[in-house]
Amino acid sequence: MRKIDVTPIVVDPFNTDFQQRWNWTTLGKSLLNAAENHAKARGFGMMELNGNHYTWVLARLTIEMVNMPMVYTKLNVSTWIESIYSLFTNRNFSITAADGTVYGYARSVWAMIDYETRQPAQLEQMEGQAFEPYLFPEQPCPIEKAGRVRPLSDDNYVCSLDTRYSDIDMNSHVNSIKYVEHMMDLFPMEAYQNGRNLRRLEIAYMAESYYGDRLSLFRRQVDEDTFEVEIRKDYEGPDTKGKTCVRALLKFG
Amino acid sequence: MRKIDVTPIVVDPFNTDFQQRWNWTTLGKSLLNAAENHAKARGFGMMELNGNHYTWVLARLTIEMVNMPMVYTKLNVSTWIESIYSLFTNRNFSITAADGTVYGYARSVWAMIDYETRQPAQLEQMEGQAFEPYLFPEQPCPIEKAGRVRPLSDDNYVCSLDTRYSDIDMNSHVNSIKYVEHMMDLFPMEAYQNGRNLRRLEIAYMAESYYGDRLSLFRRQVDEDTFEVEIRKDYEGPDTKGKTCVRALLKFG
Q1: CB neighbours of A201 closer than 8 A, spacing ≥ 6?
Q2: Cα A29 from chain centroid?
Q3: Label partner for A16 (CA 20 to 30 A): which of A27, A172, A193, B178?
Q4: Alpha-carbon distance A192 to A186, whole Å?
Q5: What CA–CA distance (Å, rounded) separates A198 from A185?
Q6: Of the candidates B15, B20, B177, which has its C-beta nearest A29's C-beta?
Q7: Which residues of A touch B192 (CB under 8 A)?
Q8: What is the pLDDT along chain B (253 residues), one digit of tens a residue?
Q9: CB distance B14–A32 less than 8 Å?
């Protein structure tokens, strides 16, 4: 079996934003679906791991788009494993047109956790799992790795929301991409008009949140186009700071 | 060209709910995408109409699922035009497995409106449009047509939300399926547990809403499994009743 999977995807009209560009929700879910399908075809998808009481959880995701494809564009979403080390695996992605035009790249870091205890497994010592034949470090992913996003302060509080049915995915926690949707909704329409869009996203997943949790969103502007966002659960003001679920950097342009 | 289009779709893992069933958001958008792709291939898609200053808007949507397909199921989403009359066209859908097993059916009613004035066009008199060769009334769609949903009262008020970037689609209004997502989020997790799910949805789209509108949701229980939901904009309590955007019937089971 090849090391890389290439999934053809068309930018369908109702998967676009108001500017007829592919929306980030569909983009993000397409990456996660490609990752899971790649793992499944090689014997270490979530369903196979669930039989062994493990599942994959996303620890970090970085997406950088040179250009956002327009409605009806025919895309190839490619994914491969860059490396495996200790508790984590690095998986990369490219989003290109059928003719090879690059739209963007993505990097992700995953941990395999015990479904019950939510504790991570030592990937290099997983019995019966053969990741090595699929390692593909030589395949280029020419975007910078994510930096560290600083913690945000109570002064940066914007709003809170209660998680609901549509936030939850097959892992029974708030879906990784739903956090992105909630973060993007912090910005006014002007951030997405006149050719402007989210260009680069770095997100670190630090703790899971579940159905019924109240999420509080914090935002700090770094420069004209760059914002840091943090999402905490159980935040009730300066006295009860809650637990940080995700921390992210968003660059517009 | 055939009268019917059949689109193969796989239930991808991150397009499911917490029970690993295809989620209604993806189901609904798959129907709209199939509809638009069918129309486009025959010369009357939104992009072609936009050139002529018209676009399609959904007036009614009824979806009834015998069974909700599980993750990795290979589906065929089929769509065809049942009829065209005066200001509306009836378009139907089936959702089946590759082996023919029926998962569900859907009925929809669309109007073609002027992009600027938002007024509907007389479909039978549209110059240069040839719908007739594609009419397919003999193809069965064995689910009941939608009934009338009664107006809800102020006593049925549940909550309000402000529409944001992720609510808006290429028609620059709140997406038809996002209303469904907001309605489904009115119900607690128990409505979707122990094999229970939304089984039948009837929704009437009565007025458009836009970015920044405040939507207010009303819900009334009809019987153990049946609920009526209404969404209004500009509702500020009994004195300012606002404008009804959608009215829906949801049957669980």
Answers
A1: A24, A61, A62, A63, A64, A180, A248, A249, A250, A251
A2: 8
A3: A172
A4: 12
A5: 11
A6: B15
A7: 165
A8: 899 999 999 999 999 999 999 999 999 999 999 999 999 999 888 877 766 788 899 999 999 999 999 999 999 999 999 999 889 999 999 999 988 999 999 999 999 988 888 888 888 777 666 788 999 999 999 999 999 989 999 999 999 999 999 999 998 999 999 999 999 999 999 999 999 999 999 999 999 999 999 999 999 999 999 999 999 999 998 888 999 999 999 999 9
A9: yes
Whether B97 and B75 have beta carbons less than 8 Å apart is answered as: yes
CA gap B136, B4 in Å, rounded: 8
Give the Cα separation of A240 and A227 in Å (integer): 24
Q: Does A85 touch chain B (CB under 8 A)?
A: no
Lateral strand order in the sheet of A5-10: A5-10, A74-85, A88-97, A102-114, A54-65, A198-205, A243-252, A226-233, A214-223, A157-162
Residue A66: which residues within 8 A CB-CB, separation 6 or more?
A102, A103, A104
Contact check, Cβ <8 Å, A192/B12: no
- Helices in A95-244 by DSSP H: which ranges? 176-184
Query: How many helices and strands (H and E) does chain A possess?
Result: 3, 10
Count of other CB atoms within 10 angstroms of residue B114: 14
The Cα A133–Cα B4 span in angstroms is 44
- CA B38, B41, B47, B53: dihedral to nearest 10 degrees? -90
Query: Does A32 reach chain B within 8 Å, measured CB to CB?
Result: yes
Instruction: Give the H/E segment covering residue B33.
Output: helix B24-41
Give A144's contacts (C-beta < 8 A, 6+ positions apart).
Answer: A62, A64
H or E element at residue A228:
strand A226-233
Locate B249 and state its tokens: 């019937």
Does A212 contact chain B (CB < 8 Å)? yes
The Cα–Cα gap between A175 and A178 comes to 5
Q: Which of A166, A167, A172, A209 to mutate to test the interface with B (most CBs of B within 10 A)?
A: A166
Cα–Cα distance, A53 to A41 (Å, whole number): 19
* Secondary structure (3-state) at B124: helix
Model-level pTM?
0.95
Tokens in use for A69?
A: 């494809």
Length of chain A: 253
ipTM: 0.94
Query: Contacts for B127-131 with beta carbons within 8 Å, 24 or more apart?
Result: B129/B43, B129/B44, B130/B43, B131/B44, B131/B81, B131/B84, B131/B89
Pick from A18, A61, A72, A74 the residue to mutate for testing the B interface (most B CBs within 10 Å): A18
C-beta atoms of B165 and A17 within 8 A: yes
Q: Tokens 């009215």 belong to which residue?
A: B247
